[in-house]
From TrEMBL, chain A:
Keywords: Cell membrane, Membrane, Transmembrane, Transmembrane helix. It is found in: Cell membrane. Its main location: membrane. InterPro entries: ABC_transp_permease, LivM-like. It is a multi-pass membrane protein. This is Inner-membrane translocator. Residues 366-411 are annotated as: Disordered. One of its GO terms (molecular function) is branched-chain amino acid transmembrane transporter activity. It holds the Pfam family BPD_transp_2. PANTHER family: ABC TRANSPORTER ATP-BINDING PROTEIN, HIGH-AFFINITY BRANCHED-CHAIN AMINO ACID TRANSPORT SYSTEM PERMEASE. Residues 391-411 have a biased composition (Basic and acidic residues). GO terms for cellular component: plasma membrane. The keyword Cell membrane applies.
UniProtKB/TrEMBL annotation, chain B:
Keywords: ATP-binding, Nucleotide-binding, Transport. Pfam families: ABC_tran, BCA_ABC_TP_C. Residues 9-253 form the ABC transporter domain. PROSITE patterns: ABC_TRANSPORTER_2. Involved in beta-(1-->2)glucan export. Transmembrane domains (TMD) form a pore in the inner membrane and the ATP-binding domain (NBD) is responsible for energy generation. It comes from Rhodopseudomonas pseudopalustris. One of its GO terms (cellular component) is plasma membrane. GO terms for molecular function: ATP binding; ATP hydrolysis activity. This is Amino acid/amide ABC transporter ATP-binding protein 1, HAAT family. It comes from the Bacteria. Signal peptide: none annotated.
Length: 411, 256
């Protein structure tokens, strides 16, 4: 696996930007070519890209990332209420606040790894969720949800004499196709940042932590600040996504922080391929597509689709199929997720790489190098006290055998 | 022999107790600059415990370890590594999911940038200065054809060689080798001895834990013999060979 060249990375980013720009054309044939849905693709794509920087690179599975999304949303709405209807201060405010929350949660959660880390992040996110409904009601407006009101002060706007009924970016309304292209541009920028991080010393350090954290200490790395940085960066991405979400849908409720939302981004990343650049975006697209398209089907539409079947068969088919659409879209998603995890543990990206023949299987030169022999050889040799005469002989025999095998297989 | 009288590592009255078991009892040991010092002893003598105390994995129950005048006790492994102590493991501990080249680049990066430095945008690949030096180092040690293979896919012998490269590119002031030839065939052992001799001749201070007496007597300037957690003998190889206590405790079975 050679490192990709700078040129290839630029090509990837440009290609990605072109696909986003042509989104309306590409997604229309599959019924997803309308701005609200594409906007969701873009926003959750940013969320997943950020999540992937933590989970994909370090292997630390945060189960509470929706907390940062939610905090980003609340921060953005407060910015719309108090400062300005413009997106820029809202984004700045959201990203900083989400980053600070990530710093606090990460500082504590990263004292543990593995399942304990996941549980800690989950606990913190659920705390945020419950606090949004209870003690923080003055800030979050509880179950009613926080919304932008006409009579809000908006000090910055008042000073500049600028009036905008809806959130906007430098005068551009964040609705319809303009809204999609604003979110799409941010998605492309986020993707670019993600490429840069993947190729940087920081990115390789995170991958090394995932591979063998123990070894990192003996190699001279203080791993905790690296992990915390990754956690904060991915929290900031979530805050950014939260701000965009608030801008496109300015009624913010606490359900954005619920654990199901945290779980969704995990699914998106794994489905697409964690640790890959494109995977999280693909996974997001797929899940949001299922959520919006499959859930919209009903029995009448299925009757039409299967109209070509004879009546007797059709009823059965429609009955069965209707379990998987409409309310049951998550059943389809669950089956798909199971299939991917079982057959393509590397997610959709692994499937794509296999199809393109890009997947590098570790190059094993001879049978003597195979992991099986390795494991066996290690056991035979290391469990014997080498100072003991009899075992010394056995050990030699084992070595000879191994050497022979090597010789026999080598060309 | 390039040894001077500067003390690199000073192990001072170190005790280590595990739930009442005395793994190390009052161990005193000075490693001089430029020497190759072998620590030998039967199984359970406390060799590995001593090494673990030196690199900060285990805190000593009593006593202290000084490295160039800095106390290592209480420091964490990464701090000890940053001071210039590199450890080469007995069972290879490499980054299995990183390529061979990346393994070495990681070692060079922490040597250059320290324990933590946030570099988010600069590219880090084989084109860069570290990448080029890493390729060079790997070619010199015969791993040139494996540059882009995953560390985990290497054969055991190549993993060991990679371990050694990782240790050496950090230009340590002290190299700790944990049984570098355990489980090797005689031919491989001899090749390893040749490599170690080159490293030794470059002036590196080396502490080596080893079972194989052939390796020990080919390389060591001085030898410390541990038995039951105590130092029972210390001296140049000839003194150790003739020491009746050592023969009784250890060498007798080996028929050197």
């Amino acid at each position: 696996m050679k490192h990709t060249s700078k040129l290839a990375d630029i090509a990837l980013l440009v290609g990605f930007a072109i696909v986003v720009a042509l989104g309306p054309v590409i997604f229309t044939p599959i019924g997803a070519g309308y701005p609200d849905l594409l906007q969701k693709f873009a926003i959750y794509g940013i969320f997943a890209i950020g999540f992937n920087i933590l989970f994909g690179l370090t292997g630390y599975l945060s189960f509470g990332h929706a907390a940062f999304l939610g905090v980003g949303s609340y921060a953005a709405v407060w910015s719309f209420k108090l400062l300005s209807m413009d997106l820029l201060p809202a984004v700045a405010f959201s990203v900083i606040l989400a980053g600070l929350l990530a710093l606090a949660i990460g500082f504590i959660s990263l004292r543990r790894s593995g399942i304990y880390f996941s549980i800690l992040t989950l606990a913190f996110a659920q705390m945020c969720y419950n606090m949004a409904y209870s003690v923080l009601t003055p800030i979050t407006n509880g179950e009613t949800g926080l919304r932008v009101l006409r009579q809000d002060p908006r000090h910055l706007d008042a000073m500049l004499g600028y009036v905008s009924p809806t959130p906007s970016l430098l005068g551009l309304p964040i609705t319809g196709w303009t809204g999609f292209y604003i979110c799409g541009a941010v998605l492309v920028a986020a993707f670019g940042v993600s490429i840069a991080i993947f190729r940087s010393p920081f990115g390789m350090t995170l991958r090394a932590i995932k591979s063998n954290q123990n070894r990192m200490g003996y190699t001279g790395y203080h791993t905790r600040p690296y992990l915390l940085s990754a956690f904060v960066i991915s929290g900031m991405f979530a805050g950014l996504a939260g701000a965009l979400l608030a801008a496109t849908d300015p009624l913010v409720g606490a359900e954005r922080m619920q654990w199901t939302a945290s779980g969704e981004v995990v699914l998106m990343t794994i489905l697409g391929g964690s640790g890959t650049l494109l995977g999280p975006v693909l996974g997001t697209g797929l899940i949001k597509y299922f959520e919006n398209i499959f859930s919209a089907y009903n029995e009448q539409q299925l009757q039409l689709i299967f109209a070509f079947l004879p009546d007797a068969v059709r009823d059965g088919v429609v009955k069965t199929a209707s379990l998987f659409v409409g309310e049951g879209w998550q059943l389809t998603l669950g089956l798909l997720f199971m299939a991917v995890v079982c057959f393509l543990p590397g997610g959709i990206m692994e499937g794509i790489n296999r199809l393109l023949g890009l997947k590098h299987t570790p190059k094993v030169k001879s049978l003597g190098d195979s992991p099986q022999r390795d494991g066996l050889g290690e056991m035979v040799i290391e469990e014997m006290p080498p100072s003991h005469g009899a075992s010394e002989a056995e050990k030699k025999a084992a070595e000879n055998k191994a050497a022979e095998k090597k010789r026999a297989v080598a060309p | 022999m390039t040894a001077t009288n500067n003390i690199v590592l000073h192990i001072d009255h170190v005790h280590k107790t595990f739930a009442g078991l005395h793994a190390l009892a009052d161990v005193n040991l000075d490693i001089r600059e430029g020497e190759t010092h072998a620590i030998i002893g039967p199984n359970g003598a406390g060799k590995s415990t001593l090494l673990n105390v030196c690199v900060g994995v285990l805190p000593p129950t009593q006593g202290k370890v000084m490295f160039h005048g800095t106390e290592l006790t209480g420091l964490r492994p990464y701090e000890i590594n940053q001071l210039g102590v590199a450890r080469v493991f007995q069972t290879p501990e490499i980054f299995g999911d990183l390529t061979v080249l990346e393994n070495v680049m990681m070692a060079m990066l922490s040597h250059r940038d320290g324990a933590f430095r946030l570099k988010l945008v600069s590219r880090f690949d084989e084109q860069g200065e570290i990448g080029q030096r890493a390729i060079q180092a790997l070619r010199e040690r015969g791993l040139g054809e494996h540059l882009y293979h995953l560390g985990g896919a290497l054969s055991r012998g190549d993993k060991r060689r990679l371990e050694m490269v990782i240790g050496l590119v950090q230009k340590p002031k002290l190299l700790l080798l944990d049984e570098p030839t355990a489980g090797m065939a005689r031919a491989d052992t001899n090749a390893t001895i040749d490599i170690l001799r080159q490293i030794k001749d470059s002036g590196m201070t080396i502490v080596i834990i080893e079972h194989d007496m052939h390796v020990v007597f080919s390389l060591a300037d001085r030898i410390t013999v541990l038995a039951g957690g105590r130092v029972i003998a210390q001296g140049v190889p000839d003194e150790i060979k003739g020491n009746p206590k050592v023969i009784e405790a250890y060498l007798g079975e080996e028929q050197v």
